[in-house]
């Protein structure tokens, strides 16, 4: 009967589960103190000390067990599975799975899209978050504004996907459009207004991005070359990566700025946004950006509040304008937090599955690694390649893992 | 009869030895104060007595029972922390009742104990408040009340007054003195930075320095007969002046001369082999007085004058690399900067230390 | 900065306006879903949801009564009287009798048709149709009406989704399933993690620093890695797919964050208080239950919200560990994804289903936002 009624079953589990947990902690303590090392008799003192040496492990055991079995062990097991073939009874096949995966166009598509996500989502979320944090900072209704921008945090990826599918909805040309995006799109008719909004503005935007990339790259180069000596290899390679990324960004944005003048925009036709190859990725990313901006804003806003007021006041006295204060005084002081926000969003992006699964399921060239893996696992039943792709995700996460552990250890000292 | 004794107690954090070979006996009813410079291990010693730090060497007896391995609760001690350490989520009443509840006392017993302690500390009207609704002094009293309620053999205080402002500190200090008086049989150990607290409260003071005990004694004994230059300079403010000198005459009375021609004969015995040795002559700033003529102890140029009304403190220009000489004269004096002054002190107020800094009074 | 002399007020205005725009932009998608969930299927497909907030012009076609049955003699011709509105009246703005010009006449005017045939339509919808014998024959005359329709909302979609719908359209079961997954999966990790966090924060034992570092590392291990091995494990030890597996998985996956958050918070509690409790005679267990837990409430609340949002909103763990072939344990996220596949065009169902599933987290979000923010700060700024 219990299993028939999920509510009852849930209630029973809550009571049983929580009761069992508490019972475990309480009883194991009791046994330790009263039976194994009783604090009585000749060895009372010694027994108490021994009990105190065991007790931490009693407290830790369930958590460590869960962590070990559900997180640590799977890392190695997945690694092993990725090197074996399930159909061959788990025989070792070396890198066959990886080779097979590399030969699939879908995998490369997923990898390319993931990279695109990795650049675009953290960048836009963090900058919007920073912008929102700064703008709402001194506003009387700033807290309300923040709370509303933060709200998508509570919405599931699936729910957000539905919300955005409604935005991207397409109806035949002779009907009323119920998706906002198409409704707006049909307002453009190829006239001067359209050229301004759809070509001139984006061009300016892309050129601004390129300019910003060049500018910050130049700044970094200047700082860097001054104190190049004595830098560790690690930092050097980080710089090289940043430089490559920056160059790519400059190239991509300039070519986008130019390219926008050579495309024929299909004015007057409702678009099925999610099926436009390449660009549909951005429509999917919008969902995550919508969700993550609030997160970035909340954290960055706390960081902005943490900036000593005196530094800002000193800058005002020195005659800095609001923009200079923001970019030259505030942003450098919260750089550490910006990095943390960026990496946290990066981690979310690497694991993004629900959005793609719900909106396109990887069709029309929107595949990402997490969904590719799910596909391999539960559609093709190919656990070898599935594991291999999971390992690829793990590899992408590893630098952040190392960095976090490094920081945590430094802080503990 | 509660006595507490430390035998060769030492403490090391890893390879860093913080305290070594501490021997100390404390009798019932004493109020022993630990003083010493910051970082000398006062808190560590107190916490070892409490059982909050492991004792890494030696033994600690309470009532002739070795308690090295007993947890804090079973040592019969109570501790009052500098930060009060009140449980923020419990009312004053619950804060005081907590230990008794844990000990399984009956509701009746708990109530009686808490209310009588609250009466003693004038906390009765605050029993239902949370700590955050109390002033600093009240919080401190709750912390003390929490200790009293347990009726411990030994009270431990770790700088209990240092979070209070100056006026409250004086008031609470007096309260603690009265508390001690009302509980003559309880033993208290009290850690402080503040000399005035140490001098006024203590039956005995323990001066700690560099991981060991420098001297143990009654407050005035430390002031009048410091065992070494460290204690001499640590007790009393401003610190005792130490002047380089040379022994010219030994015997039951000793004569010394200083480089600048000053000289003194003091009632401290020396042996024949000390003849001609370099020694340090100690004189407290408040024992110095101005003198004319050739019969002086020291002479120097005034560099800074601090006129406080009640006293005038003179800082003299140091000679070569010697520390600056300080004199504290009662009343108001019209003295110009740079004046050359001669000073003298009564012979029985002088102290004499050998070149290792050990007082000749305590020489074995 | 607010008090600095000579501050430009135009800048403040620019800030106000940009924030307002940003907020609107961010709110717009959710509001769209919310509004759509109160519209009927016809309304949704007839116009964008933003139009639903205002009264709209709507054209409808009516037909007069069948002349053969209802015509009466009127002078030397015939006449049909009636009203075009069977049930709810519309606010007529204009009308016409030909599809080429549907708004030719104002209410009260008379349309002259070929051969002296006339039709008068009044504001209340009543009409008089006059004509000769041949003209008032066959089918009723078509009347095109342009009417002003006030905004109109319905709760029917919610009734369907929550109570009356059948099969996929009814979310009630999925709602309870989601609750069944979520609540134990939120409470159990808190209990386990709190003890571990206490040990890591306040107990001395060898290897403590190493364990903390390991937990920081596990914090970022992607869930994806755990899927295959654990599914095999669950199938292997007989748990299979079901609630137990989902609870275990959620408990374990939430554990690193829980331990990390709680340990950081607990380590920040004043040392003196804990030592004082020791002097007072509390055992570690008592210190934990009587001192640490009450004092750690903010951190516990933070994590509880995280874990609740995460388990409620989860799709992947449910798909892999919970939902078996029968689908009887489906959760809301999964049901919505399935609806997206099968009823992609039925926005009234989709929007309502989605809104039902996000209403609970939104409620929790607005009530407990303070703790959520605090948890975020503790979890990522450190
Ligand atoms: N957990 C520890 N690990 C390593 N060294 C420690 C530890 N606790 C204290 N110490 C060291 O032990 C010495 C004594 O510390 P203690 O707190 O007892 O000083 P204290 O005399 O109470 O100083 P204060 O007057 O500033 O309170 C200090 O040098 C301190 O750095
Ligand atoms: Mg101390």
Automatic annotation (TrEMBL), chain A:
The chain crosses the membrane at residues 6-32, 53-73, 115-136, 148-168, 195-219, 240-262, 282-304, 334-359, 383-405. GO terms for cellular component: plasma membrane. Keywords: Cell membrane, Membrane, Transmembrane, Transmembrane helix, Transport. Residues 111-404 form the ABC transmembrane type-1 domain. Its main location: membrane. It is a multi-pass membrane protein. GO terms for biological process: transmembrane transport. InterPro entries: MetI-like, MetI-like_sf, UgpAE/MalFG_permease. It comes from the Bacteria. It is found in: Cell membrane. Belongs to the binding-protein-dependent transport system permease family. This is Carbohydrate ABC transporter membrane protein 1 (CUT1 family). It comes from Roseibium hamelinense.
TrEMBL record, chain B:
Pfam families: ABC_tran, OB_MalK. One of its GO terms (molecular function) is ATP binding. GO terms for cellular component: ATP-binding cassette (ABC) transporter complex, substrate-binding subunit-containing; maltose transport complex. The keyword ATP-binding applies. The keyword Transmembrane does not apply. It is a peripheral membrane protein. Keywords: ATP-binding, Cell inner membrane, Cell membrane, Membrane, Nucleotide-binding, Transport. Residues 4-235 form the ABC transporter domain. It is found in: Cell inner membrane. InterPro entries: AAA+_ATPase, ABC_transporter-like_ATP-bd, ABC_transporter-like_CS, ABC_transpr_MalK-like, ABC_transpr_MalK/UgpC-like, Mo/tungstate-bd_C_term_dom, NA-bd_OB-fold, OB_MalK-like. SMART domains: AAA. Belongs to the ABC transporter superfamily. PANTHER family: MALTODEXTRIN IMPORT ATP-BINDING PROTEIN MSMX, MALTOSE_MALTODEXTRIN IMPORT ATP-BINDING PROTEIN MALK. This is Alpha-glucoside transport system ATP-binding protein. It comes from Roseibium hamelinense. The lineage of its organism: Bacteria, Pseudomonadati, Pseudomonadota, Alphaproteobacteria, Hyphomicrobiales.
Automatic annotation (TrEMBL), chain C:
Coiled coil: none annotated. The keyword Transmembrane helix applies. Residues 175-368 form the ABC transmembrane type-1 domain. The chain crosses the membrane at residues 13-35, 181-203, 209-231, 243-262, 287-309, 349-368. InterPro entries: MetI-like, MetI-like_sf. GO terms for cellular component: plasma membrane. GO terms for biological process: transmembrane transport. It is found in: Cell membrane. It is a multi-pass membrane protein. Keywords: Cell membrane, Membrane, Transmembrane, Transmembrane helix, Transport. The keyword Membrane applies. PANTHER family: ABC TRANSPORTER PERMEASE PROTEIN MG189-RELATED-RELATED, OSMOPROTECTIVE COMPOUNDS UPTAKE PERMEASE PROTEIN GGTD. Belongs to the binding-protein-dependent transport system permease family. This is Alpha-glucoside transport system permease protein. It comes from Roseibium hamelinense.
């Amino acid at each position: 009967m219990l299993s028939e009624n999920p509510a009852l079953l849930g209630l029973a589990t809550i009571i049983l589960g929580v009761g069992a947990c508490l019972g475990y902690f309480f009883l194991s303590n009791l046994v330790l103190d009263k039976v194994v090392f009783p604090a009585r008799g000749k060895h009372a003192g010694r027994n108490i000390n021994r009990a105190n040496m065991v007790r931490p492990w009693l407290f830790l055991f369930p958590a460590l067990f869960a962590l070990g079995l559900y997180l640590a062990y799977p890392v190695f097991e997945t690694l092993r599975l990725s090197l074996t073939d399930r159909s061959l009874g788990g025989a070792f096949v070396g890198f066959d799975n990886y080779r097979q995966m590399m030969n699939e166009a879908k995998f490369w598509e997923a990898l390319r899209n993931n990279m695109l996500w990795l650049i675009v989502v953290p960048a836009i979320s963090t900058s919007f978050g920073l912008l929102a944090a700064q703008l709402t900072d001194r506003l009387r209704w700033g807290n309300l504004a923040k709370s509303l921008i933060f709200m998508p945090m509570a919405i599931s990826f699936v729910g957000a996907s539905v919300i955005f599918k409604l935005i991207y909805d397409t109806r035949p040309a002779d009907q009323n459009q119920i998706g906002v995006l198409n409704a707006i799109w049909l307002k453009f008719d190829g006239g001067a207004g359209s050229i301004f909004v759809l070509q001139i503005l984006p061009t300016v935007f892309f050129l601004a991005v390129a300019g910003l990339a060049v500018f910050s790259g130049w700044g970094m180069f200047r700082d860097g070359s001054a104190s190049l000596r004595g830098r560790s290899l690690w930092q050097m390679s980080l710089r090289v990566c940043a430089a490559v990324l920056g160059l790519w960004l400059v190239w991509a944005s300039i070519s986008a700025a130019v390219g926008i003048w050579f495309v024929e925009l299909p004015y007057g036709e409702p678009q099925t946004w999610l099926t436009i190859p390449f660009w549909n990725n951005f429509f999917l990313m919008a969902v995550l950006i919508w969700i993550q901006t609030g997160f970035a804003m909340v954290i960055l806003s706390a960081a902005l509040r943490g900036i000593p007021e005196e530094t800002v006041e000193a800058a005002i006295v020195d005659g800095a304008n609001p923009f200079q204060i923001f970019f030259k005084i505030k942003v450098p002081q919260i750089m550490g937090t910006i990095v943390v926000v960026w990496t946290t969003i990066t981690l979310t992006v690497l694991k993004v599955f629900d959005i793609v699964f719900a909106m396109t399921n990887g069709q029309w060239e929107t595949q990402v690694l997490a969904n590719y893996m799910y596909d391999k696992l539960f559609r093709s039943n190919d656990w070898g390649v599935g594991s291999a792709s999971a390992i690829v995700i793990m590899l992408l996460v590893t630098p952040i893992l190392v960095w976090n552990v490094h920081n945590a250890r430094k802080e503990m000292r | 009869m509660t006595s507490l004794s430390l035998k060769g107690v030492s403490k090391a954090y890893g390879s860093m030895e913080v305290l070594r070979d501490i021997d100390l006996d404390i009798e019932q009813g004493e109020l022993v104060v630990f003083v010493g410079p910051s970082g000398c291990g006062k808190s560590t010693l107190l916490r070892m007595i409490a059982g909050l730090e492991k004792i890494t060497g030696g033994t600690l007896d309470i009532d002739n029972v070795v308690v090295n391995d007993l947890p804090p609760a079973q040592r019969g001690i109570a501790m009052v922390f500098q930060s009060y350490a009140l449980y923020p989520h419990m009312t004053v009443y619950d804060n005081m009742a907590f230990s008794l509840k844990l000990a399984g006392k009956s509701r009746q017993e708990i109530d009686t104990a808490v209310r009588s302690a609250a009466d003693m500390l004038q906390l009765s009207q605050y029993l239902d408040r949370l700590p955050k609704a109390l002033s600093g002094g009240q919080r401190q009293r709750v912390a003390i009340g929490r200790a009293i309620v347990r009726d411990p053999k030994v009270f431990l205080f770790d700088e209990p007054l240092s979070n209070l402002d100056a006026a409250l500190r004086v008031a609470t200090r007096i309260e603690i003195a009265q508390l001690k008086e009302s509980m003559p049989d309880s033993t208290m150990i009290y850690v402080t930075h503040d000399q005035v607290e140490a001098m006024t409260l203590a039956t005995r003071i323990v001066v700690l320095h560099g991981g060991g005990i420098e001297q143990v004694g009654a407050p005035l004994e430390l002031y009048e007969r410091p065992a070494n230059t460290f204690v001499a300079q640590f007790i009393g403010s401003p610190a005792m002046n130490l002047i380089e000198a040379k022994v010219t005459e030994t015997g039951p009375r000793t004569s010394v001369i200083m480089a600048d021609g000053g000289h003194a004969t003091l009632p401290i015995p020396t042996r024949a082999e000390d003849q001609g040795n370099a020694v340090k002559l100690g004189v407290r700033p408040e024992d110095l007085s101005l003198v004319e003529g050739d019969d002086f102890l020291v002479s120097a140029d005034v560099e800074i004058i601090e006129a406080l009304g009640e006293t005038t403190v003179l800082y003299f220009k140091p000679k070569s690399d010697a520390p600056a000489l300080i004199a504290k004269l009662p009343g108001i004096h019209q003295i110009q900067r740079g004046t050359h002054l001669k000073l003298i002190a009564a012979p029985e107020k002088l102290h004499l230390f050998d070149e290792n800094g050990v007082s000749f009074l305590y020489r074995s | 900065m607010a008090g600095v002399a000579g501050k430009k007020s135009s800048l403040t205005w620019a800030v106000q306006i940009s924030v307002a725009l940003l907020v609107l932009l961010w709110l717009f998608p959710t509001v769209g879903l919310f509004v759509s969930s109160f519209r009927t299927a016809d309304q949704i497909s007839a116009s964008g949801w933003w139009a639903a907030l205002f009264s709209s012009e709507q054209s409808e076609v009516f037909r007069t009564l069948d002349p053969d049955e209802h015509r009466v003699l009127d002078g030397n011709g015939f006449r049909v009287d009636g009203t075009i509105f069977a049930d709810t009246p519309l606010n007529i703005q204009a009308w016409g009798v030909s599809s080429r010009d549907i708004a030719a006449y104002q209410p009260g005017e008379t349309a002259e048709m070929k051969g002296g045939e006339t039709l008068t339509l009044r504001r209340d919808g009543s009409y008089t149709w006059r004509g000769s014998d041949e003209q008032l024959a066959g089918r009723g005359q078509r009347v095109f009406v342009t009417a002003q329709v006030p905004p109109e909302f319905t709760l029917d979609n919610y009734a369907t989704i929550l109570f009356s719908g059948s099969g996929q359209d009814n979310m009630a079961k999925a709602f309870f399933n989601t609750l069944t997954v979520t609540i134990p999966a939120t409470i159990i990790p808190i209990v386990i993690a709190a003890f571990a966090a206490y040990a890591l924060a306040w107990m001395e034992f060898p290897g403590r620093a190493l364990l903390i570092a390991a937990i920081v590392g596990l914090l970022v291990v992607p869930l994806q890695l755990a899927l295959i091995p654990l599914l095999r494990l669950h199938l292997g030890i007989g748990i299979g797919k079901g609630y137990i597996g989902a609870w275990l998985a959620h408990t374990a996956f939430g554990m690193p964050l829980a331990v990390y958050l709680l340990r950081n918070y607990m380590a920040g509690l004043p040392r003196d208080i804990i030592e004082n409790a020791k002097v007072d005679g509390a055992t570690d267990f008592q210190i934990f239950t009587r001192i640490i837990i009450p004092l750690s409430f903010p951190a516990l609340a933070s994590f509880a919200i995280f874990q609740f949002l995460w388990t409620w909103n989860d799709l992947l763990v449910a798909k892999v560990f919970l939902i078996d072939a029968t689908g009887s344990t489906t959760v809301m996220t999964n049901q919505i994804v399935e609806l997206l596949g099968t009823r992609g065009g039925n926005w009234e169902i989709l929007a309502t289903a989605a809104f039902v599933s996000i209403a609970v987290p939104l409620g929790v979000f607005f009530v407990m936002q303070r703790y959520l923010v605090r948890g975020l700060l503790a979890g990522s700024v450190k």
